[in-house]
């Protein structure tokens, strides 16, 4: 019976660790960070972390190859997903995060 709480704790730690340690991936479509104020940078970092955590926790999204970048509340999703349903679900999960102004879904569907 102690295995389930241990697995839950390990999963939560893994999600938080991934969200905090995964650096925001750069993409050609995201604007440079130099145009942000310190407050915007912190807010965008918080949004990015929340989006990554929510994507990891979403049961309907295979998010291991999704990269998240946030600038002024606009979230860019790049990387690959296995289906169009995953792409749509990732955009929906992202849009529901507090602070997200809009979502630029640049995910590519690639069969695994």
UniProtKB/TrEMBL annotation:
<keyword id="KW-0677">Repeat</keyword>
<dbReference type="GO" id="GO:0042597">
    <property type="term" value="C:periplasmic space"/>
</dbReference>
<protein>
    <recommendedName>
        <fullName>Osmotically-inducible protein Y</fullName>
    </recommendedName>
</protein>
<dbReference type="InterPro" id="IPR051686">
    <property type="entry name" value="Lipoprotein_DolP"/>
</dbReference>
<dbReference type="InterPro" id="IPR014004">
    <property type="entry name" value="Transpt-assoc_nodulatn_dom_bac"/>
</dbReference>
<keyword id="KW-0732">Signal</keyword>
<dbReference type="InterPro" id="IPR007055">
    <property type="entry name" value="BON_dom"/>
</dbReference>
<feature type="domain" description="BON">
    <location>
        <begin position="43"/>
        <end position="111"/>
    </location>
</feature>
<feature type="signal peptide">
    <location>
        <begin position="1"/>
        <end position="24"/>
    </location>
</feature>
<keyword id="KW-0574">Periplasm</keyword>
<dbReference type="Pfam" id="PF04972">
    <property type="entry name" value="BON"/>
</dbReference>
